[in-house]
Design goal:
Belongs to the SelA family. It holds the Pfam family SelA. The chain has about 375 residues and is α/β, with parallel strands linked by helices. The chain has helices at about 30-40, 45-60, 70-85, 90-95, 95-100, 120-125, 145-150, 175-185, 200-205, 230-235, 250-265, 275-285, 310-315, 320-325, 355-370, and strands spanning about 15, 65-70, 105-110, 130-135, 155-160, 185-190, 205-210, 220-225, 290-295, 305-310, 330-335, 345. The protein has two domains: about 5-25 and about 270-370, Aspartate Aminotransferase, domain 1 (Alpha-Beta Complex); about 45-265, Aspartate Aminotransferase, domain 2 (3-Layer(aba) Sandwich), CATH 3.40.640.10. It has 15 helices and twelve strands.
């Protein structure tokens, strides 16, 4: 494996974990790369560009306007801050004085959604000035939990659509948005890695925060689909306040717009197909102590992965030790290890660059079997 990183002495990476920030999220197409270079080599009035990009992206995803951000997490913070400040530039420029004085900044969040996705979601909300009000339980929530928490101090209701969240016994996104609309409370949806860029704005959400670098395979960036032009305009005003610390470059803005255009108009393809995954599964099942199956994404997305269950006494290693051993190889192999503690790893085919990488993982699993030096 040879690339710009390995040439600098960094280890190569086979990414079977997913579009994860810690691994550089995703890779961009040549079309997007050409736009990035062209944009980076020219000047533009950034305020004009941000407004143009928002008006361009909005219709592509089914809304009036959007706010381009440096990431989905920045979008979460700026959504909250814009609801506090609205179009008042004095509040924007004196944000923390504003927060101290403003009592209407409570954000309702399901306890099972208060996650850490590499950083705490709560930190992103608080960065935007929110006072978090957790409702429900870690493994159970109802619409009544949300309704009873709403008061004259409520600024917004937040819903996190993510595999990181507890899925069982939880209120659904559509009914949460419907309740927020009924109560006339803005609803912010964290849809960072979601593949449908229109579904939640169609349901009536006020702000839907996406990563530009995950499903869309754009550059490091994000955007917030906004229900109204006013919401988007107020969000962009935050670039004169806390948004300055989260600014997104001209090249990334143009690259994101191009990536969304491609994503919304061309069929999405993966270098590793379903037949490849089935072949991998059959080969893994021939290894004593391993059992492989094809599973769907935990959050219900149309994403299918290979799940490898480890029988530690027969294989000679636990899933947790195997994940560690795979990641310390060269090239490093990263799997989805969210359930390693209960004996399984998952292989996400979407980020893989070729079928060869999939079968390099297979060979690594064969080599690790019974390795007494690992521990």
């Amino acid at each position: 494996m040879k690339n710009i990183y390995t040439e600098q002495g960094l280890k190569g990476v086979i990414n079977a974990s997913g579009r994860m920030t810690k691994l550089g999220v995703s890779t961009i197409s040549d079309e997007v790369a050409d736009v990035l270079v062209d944009a980076a080599q020219n000047y533009v009035v950034i305020d004009d560009l941000l407004e143009w990009a928002g008006k361009k992206v909005g219709p592509l995803v089914g809304c009036e306007d959007a706010c381009i951000t440096s990431s989905a997490s920045a979008g979460i913070a700026l959504s909250v801050a814009s609801l506090i400040c609205k179009d008042n530039i004095q509040k924007v420029e004196h944000f923390f004085d504003t927060v101290k004085k403003d009592s209407k900044r409570q954000v309702i969040l399901l306890r099972g959604h208060n996650i850490n996705f590499g950083a705490p979601l709560s930190t992103m909300l608080e960065l935007g000035g929110a006072e978090i009000v957790e409702v429900g339980y870690s493994n159970k929530s109802t619409l009544g939990d949300i309704r009873d928490a709403v008061s004259d101090k409520t600024l917004a209701i937040v819903f996190v659509k993510s595999h990181h969240c507890v899925q069982k016994n939880m209120v659904g996104i559509e009914e949460t948005i419907r309740l927020a609309n009924e109560l006339e409370v803005p609803c912010i949806v964290d849809a960072s890695a979601e593949e449908d860029l229109s579904a939640y704005i169609k349901m009536g959400a006020d702000f839907v925060c996406y990563s530009g670098a995950k499903a869309i395979s754009g550059p490091t960036s994000g955007f917030v689909a906004c229900k109204t032009e006013e919401y988007a305009k107020n969000m962009r005003l935050q670039y004169s306040g806390i948004g300055r610390a989260m600014k997104v470059g001209k090249e990334n803005i143009m690259g994101l717009v191009k990536a969304i255009e491609i994503y919304q108009t061309k069929p999405h393809t993966s270098m590793v197909g379903t037949d490849d995954l089935k072949e991998f599964m059959a080969e893994v099942n021939a290894i004593e102590g391993l059992r492989c199956s094809i599973i769907q994404d935990e959050a219900g997305r149309q994403i299918f992965r290979a799940k490898v269950d480890f029988d530690e006494p027969k294989y000679g290693l636990s899933a947790k030790l195997a994940a560690k051993a795979l990641s310390t190889r060269n090239p490093s192999i990263f799997t989805r290890d969210h359930q390693a503690n209960i004996g399984s790893l998952a292989i996400d085919p979407r980020p893989l660059n070729s079928k060869d990488e999939l079968f390099e993982i297979l060979n690594a699993l064969k080599q690790l079997k019974g390795d007494k030096k690992i521990g």
